[in-house]
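Q: Given only this backbone (457 positions), what sequence would you predict?
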């Protein structure tokens, strides 16, 4: 194994002068996946009119991507470690580019959903590989923290430019234009990766672990599909969640027997810091995605803001995230990773509590204070949380660790939308429901902060 690690590090040392271009390439990959997520919501109404699609069909335009992404994340990380991180990164970007064109040319809603499925496949390959490449190219921990801060800031940049650019494109060129945004970014990522990103792989002592992949996919797929289906009612969600409950312990048993060859080596979770990073990351996306789902809804339902106005009102949160995140590595070195991860998560929690004190997001200045706190908290903690996750393993396991932290992000986000949406509905969809949802989100954030404080060293 040590010889395998040496093979990985040696070519990377010769790329020090190109690291700026490598980071640019990886950031393009993040933008490819995240910009698409942030703009498709804007096009849902126009897509429904164009295809005479039902609400359920439109939901699958959004949910098909998330479901497939969640199901294949673990496999994407493993393939990056086995077959080459640059190769899987390029393949993921290429799949997103081709499927984006497929979305534009879709003759009906079924083909569009199928193209979105393929975009989820591409994202499940691209994102874990990009984070794994950071772990390999930046062996020094301090330098890696700074690089991860920049990498994380691209999530904020995507949510700044996505809704603004998407609104302009829909207004001038129609709904198809939002899917073209990812194409030039993906093509640039593929070309640049081939020029500047060194290849690395760690197949020694590893295998494809097909039983683990199948059970992992069933576990994650059952959980995510169950949460999605519960929003629509009926028994499908209950059955899917029951399947996940059965599959998860079977998955853990298979992985325990596989040992070092496992899809998810369970010894990763023996490290308290890794567990804390997973808990804090899940808590963060639980509250943030639940808030982003509900706040525009209550603004528009109350007549306070239009859809475009709601998108603009959310922009300061994303701008603060984008501005602070590149500096989070420097901050973590000064105050400590423990304070950055726990403190940033706690600040997000305070932002959600502040939002709970508003009257359905009004007055607007009060809501913007809460949004500012969430943006600041995400900027402080996202990069360090990613750093804790990838620091917990050697370069040879970087793809696996990257996929696991992204699984935490996805599961937290999916559960946040479902649980906070249910809390809002149970409260009558009014002020009490809004307060209950935001307080619940804030409390979960604070528990995530506590987990990070107790485990991260």
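A: Predicted residues:
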């Amino acid at each position: 194994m040590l010889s395998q690690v040496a093979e990985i590090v040696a070519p990377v040392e010769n790329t020090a002068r190109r690291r700026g271009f490598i980071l640019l390439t990886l950031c393009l990959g993040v933008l490819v996946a995240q910009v698409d997520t942030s703009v498709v919501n804007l096009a849902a109404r126009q897509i429904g009119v164009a295809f005479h699609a039902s609400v359920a069909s439109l939901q699958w335009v959004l949910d098909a991507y998330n479901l497939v992404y969640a199901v294949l994340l673990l496999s994407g990380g493993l393939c990056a470690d086995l077959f080459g991180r640059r190769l899987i990164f390029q393949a993921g970007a290429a799949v997103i580019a081709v499927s984006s064109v497929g979305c534009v040319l879709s003759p009906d809603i079924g083909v569009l959903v199928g193209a979105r499925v393929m975009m989820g496949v591409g994202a499940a390959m691209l994102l874990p590989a990009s984070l794994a490449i950071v772990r390999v190219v930046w062996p020094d921990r301090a330098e890696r923290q700074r690089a991860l801060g920049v990498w994380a800031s691209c999530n904020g940049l995507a949510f700044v430019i996505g809704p603004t650019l998407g609104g302009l494109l829909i207004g001038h060129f129609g709904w198809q234009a939002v899917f073209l945004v990812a194409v030039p970014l993906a093509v640039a990522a593929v070309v640049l990766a081939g020029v500047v990103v060194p290849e690395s792989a760690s197949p020694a002592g590893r295998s494809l672990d097909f039983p683990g992949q199948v059970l992992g996919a069933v576990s994650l797929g059952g959980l995510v599909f169950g949460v999605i289906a519960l929003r629509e009612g009926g028994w499908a969600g209950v059955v899917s969640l029951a399947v996940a409950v059965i599959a998860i312990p079977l998955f853990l048993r298979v992985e325990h027997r596989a040992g070092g060859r496992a899809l998810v080596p369970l010894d990763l979770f023996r490290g308290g810091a890794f567990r804390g990073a997973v808990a804090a990351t899940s808590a963060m996306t639980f509250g943030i995605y639940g808030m982003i789902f509900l706040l525009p809804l209550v603004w528009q339902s109350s007549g306070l803001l239009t859809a475009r106005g709601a998108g603009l009102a959310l922009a300061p949160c994303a701008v603060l995230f984008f501005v602070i995140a590149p500096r989070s590595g420097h901050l973590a070195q000064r105050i400590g990773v423990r304070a950055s991860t726990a403190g940033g998560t706690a600040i997000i929690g305070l932002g959600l509590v502040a939002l709970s004190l508003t009257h359905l997001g009004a007055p607007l200045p009060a809501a913007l204070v809460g949004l500012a706190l969430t943006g600041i908290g995400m900027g402080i903690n996202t990069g360090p949380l990613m750093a804790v996750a990838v620091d917990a393993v050697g370069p040879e396991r970087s793809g696996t660790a990257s996929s696991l932290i992204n699984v935490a992000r996805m599961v937290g986000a999916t559960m946040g939308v479902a649980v906070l949406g249910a809390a809002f509905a149970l409260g009558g969809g009014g002020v009490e429901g809004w307060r209950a949802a935001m307080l619940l989100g804030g409390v979960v954030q604070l528990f995530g902060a506590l987990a990070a404080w107790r485990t991260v060293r």
